[in-house]
Specification:
single chain; two-stranded antiparallel ribbon
């Protein structure tokens, strides 16, 4: 059955349904709800900006973007973003989506923690980042109406999200600290792993417009 949240239709193709079930099985409820919100925020920001995008590709990009934090898909020899990007491309290839379209999703996931650059790329790439930035950092919070925000959070609640997502980041990357060099997740390790020194992405999350 087609589901609509805040005026955004959740893709209901066989591919999208299988993506949903894969993430539901592999990820915690925290990461599942976060990933669905990333799709919804990205679609809302795309609508607000008048962008033309493929909802199915955006959905897979959003749903797979944090798979590298899960026990099933995380590795210890590369950035967590690449874990999710690689799995998304394998999944798409298995469903007959290849070439530039699959590469677009790979890039959307691989760059979702890289500030600004994705916003100058294809809409699906930009909107995965827009969705992540809104949900985690509160960037773009006023661009979504109170009614839209309430509808999304009602469908996918975020209780104590700031603290719980920081714990998920830490758990997903603490065994590969060298891969955090040069990206915002190094700040998570600086807060939660003794002896690691870096910057301050965490304070941005804690002080964002989100109440929790």
């Amino acid at each position: 059955m087609t589901e609509t949240v805040a005026g955004v239709r959740i893709p209901d193709s066989a591919l999208a349904r299988e993506a949903t079930e894969l993430v539901r099985e592999a990820a915690s409820p925290l990461l599942f709800d976060h990933s669905r919100r990333v799709f919804l925020w990205g679609a809302l920001r795309g609508r607000e900006q008048g962008l033309s995008f493929d909802p199915e590709l955006l959905y897979v990009g959003a749903m797979f973007h944090d798979l590298g934090l899960t026990e099933r898909f995380r590795r210890t020899d590369q950035r967590f973003e690449i874990d999710g990007a690689d799995e998304a491309r394998r999944f798409l290839h298995a469903h007959g989506v290849t070439g530039e379209a699959a590469d677009r999703v790979w890039t959307a996931i691989a760059l979702h923690t890289t500030p600004e650059i994705p916003l100058h790329m294809a809409p699906e790439i930009a909107l995965v980042t827009r969705g992540v930035e809104l949900d985690v950092l509160g960037i773009g919070y006023p661009a979504v109406s109170d009614e839209e925000r309430a509808a999304v959070v009602a469908a996918h609640p975020r209780p104590d999200f700031k603290n719980r997502i920081l714990a998920a980041f830490t758990e997903g990357i603490k065994d590969r600290p060298d891969t955090a060099f040069g990206n915002v997740k190094a700040d998570v390790l600086a807060h939660f792993v003794p002896g690691f020194v870096r910057g301050d992405f965490v304070e941005v999350i804690k002080n964002s417009a989100w109440p929790e």
